[in-house]
Amino acid sequence: MATLDGADLLLFSSNDYLGLCDHPKVNEAAIDCVKRHGWGSGAARLLAGSMPPHMELERVMAQFLGKEAALLFNTGYAANTGLLAAMMGRGDMIFADKLSHASIIDGARQSGARLARFAHNDPQSLEALLQKAPARGRRLVVTEGVFSMDGDIPPLREIAAIARGYGAMLMVDDAHGFGVFGPEGRGTVHMAGIADEVDIHGVTLGKAAGSFGGMVVASRKIIDGLINFSRPFIYSTAMPPAAAAAALAAIDIIRGEEGEALRQTLFRNARKAGEVIKGAGYDTGSKTQILPVVVGESEEAAWLSARLWRGGIYAPAIRPPTVPQGTARIRLSITAGHTEADMEKLAAALAP
Ligand SMILES: Cc1ncc(COP(=O)(O)O)c(C=O)c1O
Predict the structure, then answer these.
(1) Is 24-254 in CATH node 3.40.640.10?
(2) In terms of CATH architecture, what is 2-21+257-350?
(3) Annotated catalytic, 144?
(4) pLDDT below 50 — which residues of the chain?
(5) Of residues 13, 80, 121, 148, which has the active-site annotation?
């Protein structure tokens, strides 16, 4: 529940998929950390800002996702821009899905590498671009685990095979898949069984992990390169250690029994919400916790959002340029905290 402009509204637009933003263990970890280390970090990581929770989080995430090393950035946005701009450069090529998140596009532009965009979730389109690409320079294919505005999961195995076949590295930004999918919530990369083929595994901690920050999980060589060359990492004050401590507590929950139970509740709620949307005469192609209701023009999306508001539901309209022209939508995001009664309220608000 949220209070907006004096109205009590049910939130259907939060990325707090497992309800960890306000979990007692996560809150306690942050409070304990403040008592031990204070609130602020006081400096950038390479000066005096590196504190035990930052380093422990990097160790735990590398181990959890089965890679040699991990690096913590202050946000997922900074992780994506900081990674791409540092790793890729003039003469290189980045192949990104057409619906890639703004942070991927901005990072690719900052890098100076040539950016080619393949049709959404379309391995053949990716292959056609790779075939035409010049032989020189490095190649990086970038996709997401769960697309943030469409809620769909790409054919990761096919994409990985094509990237490998054309000598390209592969990056998967699993901002919305980490904590939700795969064994122990390790994300869509592990669900697809391609962890060894993914060179760069991106994770944000502000969504299912209910905390804050972004991580790049990769080989020791890539992480060392970022420590030395990634500007958002080098030239920014380290995040408050309590945010890292909260993320550590969240990961502990995610990989344990409670995490599994929360995921099952989340999946059940998402299935139910999908039925509610279809029952109201709308179509949603998604099978994840992100359920877009695409209506077309911005005015229609604003109208539907206002109707939901009157029915006690908060789900803002998503309009171009965040999504392509003609695909304005309501993006319903489902959490483990939603109840049967919430679904009934959604059904009533959506009813024609
Ligand atoms: C796919 C994707 N990558 C990166 C980000 C950025 O993450 P953060 O909110 O931690 O900056 C987001 C969401 O905001 C996202 O949806």
Answers:
(1) yes
(2) Alpha-Beta Complex (3.90)
(3) yes
(4) none
(5) 148
